Amino acid sequence: MKFVAALSGLLLSIPAFADSIIVNGTRFIYKENDKEVTVQLSNTADRPSLAQVWLDDGDPEATPDKISTPFIINPPVSRIDPHSGQVIRIKLNPGSRLSQTKESIWWLNVLDIPGSSKADKAPEGAGLFKMAVRSRFKLIYRPDSLSGRSSAIEKIKLQPAGSSLTMTNPTPFYITVATISPDGGEPINLDAVMLAPQSSQTISLRQTVHTGEKLMLEEINDYGALAKSKATAG
């Protein structure tokens, strides 16, 4: 677990994939009765890669040796040959006590450390630079006592105040809203917003929203797809 410290100056965070290692999802849901969650890594390059996988609780700067989570990752480090794959298994530690009234979230990190191939030869007098690339993905733990996830976005409350909007999530689920738009119009939010369970967040908009105005919310669902829902401001 020392790769991150050694390569901290070479890391680049991107949202959905590493340099040559492709991950089979953008988010992973760990349901309470699941024995484990599997993550498929695929190396699409013509050279081997070393993959390091770990979880953090929201601090992207924390290194694996400083992080404690209730999960076991196997294997945490693996060599993936060219055009081959590796299954990563994530299992909840027996006896771990997690909230049973709302979802909990961690971030899955995949560090892609490229290896060498015979084609990796720099021109005479030139250096060869390789970059380790890190990707982060949501890992959400969902208690089995929770229900109504598919309709959760319909419960979001919107309170406009000029060109800002306070979004309240009264549900026990994490909800990621990708776009907010006037009904049938272009998106007016600047960035996607992730609403934690039973929380509120105020965001800036590109234009004023009035009480009673009809809006279209587009959320990223459990499968990484976009799902639309109508809402009324105020």
UniProtKB/TrEMBL annotation:
- In this chain the Pili assembly chaperone C-terminal domain maps to 168-225
Upper lineage = Bacteria, Pseudomonadati, Pseudomonadota, Gammaproteobacteria, Enterobacterales
Q: Which residues constitute the signal peptide according to the record?
A: 1-18
Note the superkingdom of the native organism.
Bacteria
- Please give the InterPro entries that the UniProt record associates with this protein: Ig-like_fold, PapD-like_sf, Periplasmic_pilus_chap, Pili_assmbl_chap_C_dom_sf, Pili_assmbl_chaperone_bac, Pili_assmbl_chaperone_C, Pili_assmbl_chaperone_N
* Entry-linked Pfam families: PapD_C, PapD_N
Where does this chain mainly localize?
periplasm
* Species name: Pseudocitrobacter corydidari
Q: Which family does it belong to?
A: Belongs to the periplasmic pilus chaperone family.
For this UniProt record, the keywords arranged alphabetically read as follows: Chaperone, Periplasm, Signal
- Where is the protein localized? Periplasm
Any idea what this protein is called?
Fimbrial chaperone YehC
